[in-house]
Amino acid sequence: MSSSVQLLAFLTCDGIHIDPLSGKHTILGIFSNLRGERFPVVHPRMIWFLTLMDVPVGKHNLTISIGLPTETPRIVVDRDFDSKSPAQRINLINDIQNLRFKAPGDYGIVIEIDDEPLLVTSFPVTS
Q1: Is position 1 within any domain?
Q2: Residue 104 lies in a domain
Q3: Helices marked H in 5-126 — which ranges?
Q4: What is the pTM of this model?
């Protein structure tokens, strides 16, 4: 894979509505951290929304992993997708259910396309 893949958006939100007539995406409840009173805490549902561009034509693999710095990250998303043209903007909606956080901390999120890191970011979970 070429390193030219561009990540235009990465959002954590409550939901995505796609208008059946226009195809427009409405993003509902964007958030960038979680708070729990007692740990472990399980978040029932969140969406990880990505928009990619400059993806070479063909089949590709997206993986997203999460973990505390002191642990081996666990893969939460592992899916294939197709690109019809590098000019195509590809929206990937990833429905994450029952994500468990065993302790508060700054969880690292790593997004990879075809085993190449595209983004490394943090997701704070506090008490």
Answers
A1: no
A2: yes
A3: none
A4: 0.93
pLDDT for 92-112, tens place per residue? 999 999 999 999 999 999 999
Residues 6 or more apart whose Cβ sits within 8 Å of residue 119: 7, 10, 109, 110, 111
Q: Which residues of 67-95 are buried (b: 16+ CB within 10 A; e: fewer)?
A: bbeeeebeebbeeeeebeeeeeebbeebe
What whole-number distance in Å separates Cα of residue 71 and Cα of residue 106? 12
Domain boundaries, position 37: 6-126
In a domain, 101, yes or no: yes
The answer to whether 111 and 99 are in contact (CB under 8 A) is: no
Q: Structurally, how many domains does the chain consist of?
A: 1
Q: Supply the Cα-derived Rg of the chain in whole angstroms.
A: 15
